[in-house]
Amino acid sequence: MEFADVLRQRRMVRHYDDRPVDPAVVERVLSAGLRAPSAGFSQGYALLVLQDEADRARFWQVTETPQETASWPPETRTGVLRAPVIAVALSCKRVYLDRYAQPDKGWTDRDESRWPVPFWHIDTGMVALLMLLQAVDEGLGALFIGMQPDVIPAFRHAFGVPDDHDVVGVVCFGHEAADAPRRDLRSRRRDAAEVIHHGHW
Ligand SMILES: Cc1cc2nc3c(=O)[nH]c(=O)nc-3n(C[C@H](O)[C@H](O)[C@H](O)COP(=O)(O)O)c2cc1C
Predict the structure, then answer these.
(1) How many CA atoms lie within 13 A of 107 on its CB side?
(2) I want to staple 119 with a disulfide (CB 3.0 to 4.6 A). Which of 27, 39, 98, 112 is the partner?
(3) What's the pLDDT score for residue 47?
(4) Residue 49 beta carbon below 6 angstroms from any ligand 1 atom
């Protein structure tokens, strides 16, 4: 697929069908994330991938809040929960502090005020975006969702996630259902002139 088409076609898909995804394709989507840039090439990110039906059911059981259940129309909720692959994207600040304490960076005090924004979360977001794009290139649909802070302890406990890894978000992917509704966001998309400031704000 042309890159311009991948960009144009990418959108969050919330309705999946039961078709399994070829394991080689799953691997390519996950591996695409590992091409992400990272500050100091720290690569302080990790993916917890759930494909087994029981694991996925457990994931939704521990992470879905009553507010989320209520906020999605029932058919959307069913459509999302059918996604055959769930990849939780996690970031690890410690890896960045260690990397930047090395001689070529020299931040041996590990002072967090040096970081303009948390690069560990940014890099993990880039991992997620590359996976979203690769999914489109593979003819699949994908979705990025957040995880509510109050369910994270139960999520960690259920899947053995270490405390020094933070949940950045969840990428779900699979085959989009043929009858998936299409959202038209064109009228809500901000104008380039409103966002891009040439020369001076
Ligand atoms: C950081 C982030 C968090 C998001 N969280 C959710 C979420 O919790 N639930 C959801 O349905 N969509 C979520 N989305 C998807 C956005 O709603 C979606 O990207 C936006 O409406 C634009 O639609 P599009 O991606 O289909 O172009 C999230 C997207 C991002 C980047």
Answers:
(1) 15
(2) 39
(3) 98
(4) no
